[in-house]
């Protein structure tokens, strides 16, 4: 779905090209149009679909005192970097693995030291693996901790989030500063004096 701004942009582009078309200009124009529309479609957007070029334009309210938004530094959006996830190679995305048990006779080492010769030999019970795999019981995968996916090293995607502090404007209204007229000021001073003398 296009936003209203995008629809306006598309409309403007269409209108501009329609004008040129009426003037019967070459096929270059048509390809330029295709390119422009494609650029518009691939422009980075925030998660709520606002093109980044529409953000951080300020409040645009003449006469309103503004403050720079310190959260987004006037960009109107914030970048959230998150790792690209892939199916866990250990459990193939299942999140669980068959439960394993330590071999009791060799205490999980898979080996024995032969009493007579002092030679190290393979445990015959577990065939040297040190563990048994349960055919029925499962446990959480230790690689992905049951999450089914793992982050791929050094691969990230960036999410753009519209700044909630300034609603994407990049600016906020300056806080309201009370301005006292002389009458109010006088009353305040009198009240303060009364309070001081009554002590
Ligand atoms: Zn902001
Ligand atoms: Zn064993
Ligand atoms: Zn896993």
Number of strands: 8
Structural class, judged by helices and strands? alpha+beta
Q: H/E element string?
A: HHEEEEEEEEH
Measured between the Cα atoms of the first and last residue, the distance is 69 Å
Dominant shape: flat
The helix count comes to 3
Largest sheet: 2 strands, antiparallel
| Helical proportion, percent range | 25-40%
Q: What share of residues are in beta strands?
A: 25-35%
Low-confidence stretches: none
In this entry the ligands are: zinc ion
Task: Please list the strands of the largest sheet in the order they lie side by side.
Answer: 1-8
- On the 0-100 scale, what is the average pLDDT? 87
Radius of gyration of CA atoms, rounded to a whole number: 35 Å
Textual characterization of the structure:
It is a single chain. With 199 residues, the chain is an alpha+beta fold. The chain has three helices and eight strands, in the order ααββββββββα. The strands form four sheets. The chain has a two-stranded antiparallel ribbon. It has a two-stranded antiparallel ribbon with strand order 2-7. The longest helix is centred in the first third of the chain and has 19 residues, at 4-22. The two termini are 69 Å apart. It binds zinc ion (3 copies). One zinc ion binds at residues 88, 90-91, 95, 141, 143-144.
Summarize the structure.
This protein has 199 residues and is α+β, with helices and mostly antiparallel strands.
Tell me the layout of helices and strands.
Layout: H1 4-22, H2 27-42, E1 66-68, E2 77-87, E3 96-102, E4 111-113, E5 120-122, E6 131-140, E7 149-162, E8 171-173, H3 182-197
Antiparallel strand pairs: 1-8, 2-7, 3-6, 4-5
Residues 103, 105-106, 110, 123, 125-126, 130 line the site of one zinc ion.
